[in-house]
Amino acid sequence: MRKPLVAACFALAIAGAGAAPAVAAPAAAGTGAAAPVLRAATPTLRAVNLAGTVALSNCSGSVVRFPSSLDTDPALVLSNGHCLSTGFPEPGEVLVNQASSRTFGLLNSAGTRVATLRASKLAYGTMTDTDVSIYQLTSTYASIKNSYGISALTVQDTHPVAGTAITVASGYWKRLYSCNIDGFVYRMKEGDWTWKDSVRYTSACQTIGGTSGSPVIDQATGKVVAVNNTGNEDGQRCTENNPCEVDANGNVTVRKGINYAQETYLIPACFKAGNQIDLNKSGCTLPKP
Asked: Where are the beta strands (DSSP E) in 20-102?
């Protein structure tokens, strides 16, 4: 996983470092090929900026909404499970509706911090099957828009497509990384954690420590299709900060210098009216406690 950063000076010291917890080791070239995927057509692309992204104390994130969210709903912040201030959740651990007063620095399109937002609770957090945290804020989407002129990013509720042009928008670093979705990983292992159907970037997205939790934005639609979380730093096999790819037959592939994200299209189905988490809702497949 992209290392959470404990302070800006420490972050600068590791600015050349790779990702969050990851597991990987050198494997023979050509093993563990990804499952076949459809390639996206070439769409008209839009400029992506930092509006709606947030800076956490140690990671990046974004203010997000779902297709069914209302302007009067409490706003949500999306980041990684490994960015929780309480530390990495254990494999199999799922946190739901935990009290939290965590703060987030809201950025405008230029990357200027315009407000401090505060959580009322951690709605959901896990590193099992995926690497995600979702905080509910004390502010509504309407109040954020009215006060700061910033709209939330919408989470796409359909599976992303290989070949899609994307931007990883880091609120921590106030920096954009642009590349394409190279493909999808059946299983990705990093240390004690395993993630399903992960997004692999093309090599142009050289994300660094502190970019964990950044929204991965489709340049054609402006919607969030994944959340940035890790990369293989040293070419090791399935170790922390060195994730490895495992195919359906158990073949392992290590791609040094390649970075990854976790899909987010499953999340909207697990929230009901009022942006409230409901893991028993029909169609919800996120891990349960």
From this structure: 53-55, 60-65, 74-79, 94-99
Q: What is the DSSP letter of 88?
A: P
- Tell me whether strands 153-154 and 60-65 are parallel, antiparallel or unpaired: parallel
3-state helix, strand, coil in the chain (%, to 5): 10, 40, 50
Q: By C-alpha distance, which of 33, 83, 25 is closest to 54?
A: 83
Domains of the chain: residue spans and CATH: 8-47+156-263 (2.40.10.10), 53-155+268-276 (2.40.10)
The structure tokens listed for 72 are 């009067």
Q: How many residues does the structure list for the chain?
A: 289
Whole-angstrom Cα distance, residue 264 to residue 157?
A: 8
Read off the pLDDT of residues 228-282 as tens digits, 9 standing for 90 and up: 999 999 999 999 999 999 999 999 999 999 999 999 999 999 999 999 999 999 9
pTM of the predicted structure, to 2 decimals = 0.87
Task: For the beta carbon of residue 197, count every other beta carbon within 10 angstroms.
Answer: 18
Q: Please tell me what DSSP assigns to residue 286.
A: S
* Residue keyed to tokens 């007063």: 101
